[in-house]
Amino acid sequence: MIRNLQRRHFILSASVGLAVGLSPALAAAQATAAAKAPAAQARTPVILILGDSLSAEYGLPRGTGWVALLEKQLAQDKLQATVVNASVSGETTAGGRSRLASLLAQHAPTHVVIELGGNDALRGLPLKNTEDNLTWMTQAAQKAGAKVLLVGMQVPPNYGTDYANKFAGLFTTVAQAQKVAVVPFFLKGVADGPDPTKLFQPDRIHPRAEAHPQMLANVWPELKKLLR
Q: 39-53 burial, b if ≥16 CB within 10 A, otherwise e?
């Protein structure tokens, strides 16, 4: 089930070492434990979603956003996994970067979905900063042993064609450089339709609940590959 972030998460870990002077029996016992360690460490996947309002159900009834729908998709496909939604409305890549280390330590995720960057563009922040933050978060998650999926975003052309094109491409650029999976455009089929406004809330920024199944459909194929 989707885990509340206020709920503590405990991970038990063990290490085995051999030292000079150990008895043969103890050394043999520790060697056996070490050999069994990989099997003992196998556990249910933990999927950490690090996102902004698009993943935090902004303006939606609870349980209707794409992250909640992900839990149902996992059950439907008979894939056991725990989903931790650490998304915060208004979050930027800098904010996600500042929170990630503690989230990795607290939840020890096996998979990290990074859905950040949209608010960077809305604020006109330097693209280099966004790229650096995405790279840092990706590397941090990888060093913690997690598989990473980057979820990309696009901005309207009124931000300037050059800025919009470079922003849209930086997610794939980071993904290729770090050799991780990527969804190029999170709102494909939502924001690029003949009448996209019908799938958005009155602010024309946040998708309505009706759009979230499509958002999940954009993410799920890539995420499912990582869960195999």
A: eeeeeebbbbbbbbb
Task: Please give the structure tokens belonging to residue 100.
Answer: 């990630």
CB 64 within 8 A of CB 212: yes
Q: Which helix (H) or strand (E) holds 42?
A: none
- In this prediction the pTM is 0.82
Please identify every residue annotated as catalytic. Answer: 53, 203, 206
Instruction: Give the residues across from 47 on adjacent strands.
Output: 83, 111
Look at residue 192 in the predicted model and tell me its pLDDT.
92
What DSSP designation does 209 have? Answer: G
| pLDDT value of residue 42 | 66
Question: Which pLDDT tens digit goes with each residue over 199-212?
Answer: 999 999 999 999 99
Give the model's confidence band at 36: pLDDT under 50 very low, under 70 low, under 90 confident, else very high. very low
pLDDT at 44: 94
Amino acid making up residue 50 = L
Q: Which residues contact 216 (CB under 8 A, 6 or more apart)?
A: 66, 69, 70, 73
Phi, psi of 181 (to 5 degrees): -75, 155
AA identity, residue 89? S
Contact indicator for 109, 48 with CB cutoff of 8 Å: yes
Q: What is the amino acid identity at position 81?
A: A
pLDDT in tens, 141-162: 999 999 999 999 999 887 889 9
H-helix segments, the chain:
24-41, 66-76, 93-107, 118-122, 127-143, 161-178, 212-227
